[in-house]
Amino acid sequence: MKTNLMHVRINVSDLKRSEKWYTDILGFKVDTEWPPERPEYIRFESEGGAVFAIMEADDCRALRGRIDFYVDDVDALWKKLRGKAHVAEDLHTTSYDTRKFTIQDPDGNKLSFVQG
């Protein structure tokens, strides 16, 4: 069976706070809010077509996630984000010859940005 990844979703404790963080800090664009009358789920889509979603959950602390994004210029993104987000892992060269750094969203979910 041939499959393609449709989207990745992580749980957050405060949907509006997280929407603001993902749009203001990372520059993601909101694609969908569901249900429209009282959103509990927000889907973002990047220029490259990657789909990423957040969903409000009662106790998301036990369900923290980690997502890695490939980027074209990790050094430029590091300069842009390092003072705006909690850094979990500084920019470095990995043992498998990529460069990456990791930040955390307001709920402690880890987001890594990788080039190489």
Characterise this structure.
The chain is of the alpha/beta class and 116 residues long. The chain has one domain: Roll (2,3-Dihydroxybiphenyl 1,2-Dioxygenase, domain 1), CATH 3.10.180.10. Helices cover 16% and strands 41% of the residues. It contains 2 helices and 8 strands, in the order βαββββαβββ. The strands form 2 sheets. A 4-stranded mixed sheet has the order 1-4-3-2, with helices on one face. Strand 7 and strand 8 form a beta hairpin. It is globular, with a radius of gyration of 15 Å. The two termini are 29 Å apart. The model has no long low-confidence stretch (mean pLDDT 90). This is VOC domain-containing protein.
Order of helices and strands: EHEEEEHEEE
**Average pLDDT across residues?**
90
Would you give the CATH topology? 2,3-Dihydroxybiphenyl 1,2-Dioxygenase, domain 1
Total number of β-strand segments? 8
Largest sheet descriptor: 4 strands, mixed
Organism: Halalkalibacillus sediminis
InterPro entries: Glyas_Bleomycin-R_OHBP_Dase (IPR029068), Glyas_Fos-R_dOase_dom (IPR004360), VOC_core (IPR037523)
Protein name: VOC domain-containing protein
Domain VOC: 4-116
Record keyword descriptors for this entry:
4-stranded mixed beta sheet; 116 residues; 2,3-Dihydroxybiphenyl 1,2-Dioxygenase, domain 1; single chain; alpha/beta; VOC domain-containing protein; Glyas_Bleomycin-R_OHBP_Dase
